[in-house]
Amino acid sequence: MMADITVDAKFKSCPGPLIALADTVSRAQPGQVVKLLATDPAAPSDVKEWALSVGHTLLATEKSGDVYEIYVGVSG
Amino acid sequence: MSKIALIVASEKMDKLFPAVTLATTAAISGWDAEMFFTFWGLLALKKGYEPSGVSFDYKAYEGKLTDALANGSIPDWKTVLEQGRATGRIRIYACSTTLGMFGLKQEDLDSFVDGIAGAATFLSKAKDANVSLFIS
Predict the structure, then answer these.
(1) Considering only the top CATH level, what class is B3-135?
(2) Where are the domains of chain A?
(3) Please, are residues A71 and A34 in contact by the beta-carbon 8 Å criterion?
(4) Which residue on chain B is closest to A20 by alpha carbon?
(5) Chain B within 8 Å of A54 (Cβ-Cβ)?
(6) Over the stretch A6-38, which tens digit does the pLDDT of each residue have?
(7) For helices B13-28 and A16-27, what crossing angle results, to 10°?
(8) C-alpha angle B134/B102/B24, rounded to 5°?
(9) What is the pLDDT of residues B27-72, one digit of tens each?
(10) Interface contact flag, B73 A13, Cβ < 8 Å
(11) Was domain A5-73 assigned CATH 3.30.110.40?
């Protein structure tokens, strides 16, 4: 999956990845795709719940080695 | 709108970190967060205050936390709090009784403190919270 913006939060523990993602998404344009790179095992579930709360879309979660690639679609 | 209410009664790092992590995560998820700092927790609101370490029982593990802070895997508690406060959804109150006990005034507290409150004021802000925690 292609992303417009990548947030690298590898080796950051909770709540670092989510804070970094939320900050980037707040400055992104509607329709853009933001990719979060994270090694925190809680990140996939945390991003899913956060996206549900704030109305963005969790598009996909992939895993490459120890790194999660979590794709979020920015809503308007 | 969901809300979390946190009473923070300790200024030890192992108490401050979970408290601000929950408040900030709530805030960036669109929740309101009300934080009431009382007793030893109030010390964390003093201007220029740095946490004095972890709780006594867990001193043996303090190095784990300081290492994680040093290598950046865990962010500093005040940075996390500031990131949450940037949403405008976190409010921080200093307990009036403890403030008097320490002989402190509002001007002795950091600028991120929204006000001084008593138990009744905090209860009125927390009564409709979905999650309520006392962290000590």
Answers:
(1) alpha beta
(2) 5-73
(3) yes
(4) B83
(5) yes
(6) 999 999 999 999 999 999 999 999 999 999 999
(7) 30
(8) 35
(9) 999 999 999 999 999 999 999 998 879 999 999 999 999 999 999 9
(10) yes
(11) yes
